[in-house]
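Pipeline run #58 for the internal structure catalog. This entry was flagged by the ingest filter as a single-chain record with no existing model, so it goes straight to prediction. Upstream metadata was stripped on purpose; only the residue string is passed forward. Reviewer on rotation: M.T. Logging verbosity set to normal.
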Amino acid sequence: MMLTKEQVTEINDAGHGVLILYTNVTPDKAEDKTLPTNAYLLELKKDGKTWFDLVMGDAVSIFDKYYDYLGNCMVRMLWTKGTRQPSMYKTDKPKQPPKKQPKK
């Protein structure tokens, strides 16, 4: 039982320090050096199925979110080989409209 797209969007939009970068990936995706330094590769197992997710955030928040949504499914959490500063890591966030200039 993996997270649905709606659940991923809900978690990412909640702003609780957890950002799911990729779901259901192969472990070699964690070798990517363009990932942020605070990204983790999660090995998850539920109902006899095993899958991997790449998640950005602090370990406690990540564990709490996954436990809330899927229960006791986390097998292990490993650092990725990412070298990017988290604040400089680009995600696919929608662009904000430009701010209006005040009238003079």
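catalog note: Helices lie at 5-14, 59-70.
catalog note: The two ends are 57 Å apart (CA to CA).
status: ready for reviewer M.T.
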